[in-house]
Amino acid sequence: MPLYEYVCPSCQLNFERLRPMSGADDTPCPRCHEVARRKLSTFASFSKSAEGDIAPISGSGSACNSCSASSCATCGL
To answer: At CA 56, angle to CA 5 and CA 65, rounded to 5?
Structure first.
């Protein structure tokens, strides 16, 4: 099951839920029980080469886009 992110329009709680794809849009808020809106999830994906170099996967939304370091080892990613 995929992990989805939600925000409640009533109490503004941000939370995550493992939900089947067929039930991703109808999740109640755990705090106030109003129907929450699904958020657009953002995450970073990295790949490790045979030599051990770490590089962001193209188009993954990596946070490294604005980083001026020459290697991800500087920021720990």
So the answer is: 80
User: What span, in angstroms and rounded, lies between the C-alpha atoms of 44 and 35?
Assistant: 28
**How is residue 29 written in tokens?**
């808020």
Sole residue written with tokens 């490294």 = 64
**pTM of the predicted model over 0.85:** no
Among 14-18, 22-26, 71-75, whose mean pLDDT is lowest?
71-75
Question: What backbone phi and psi angles, to 5 degrees, belong to 47?
Answer: -125, 145
The Cβ of residue 62 has, within 10 Å, a number of other Cβ atoms equal to: 19
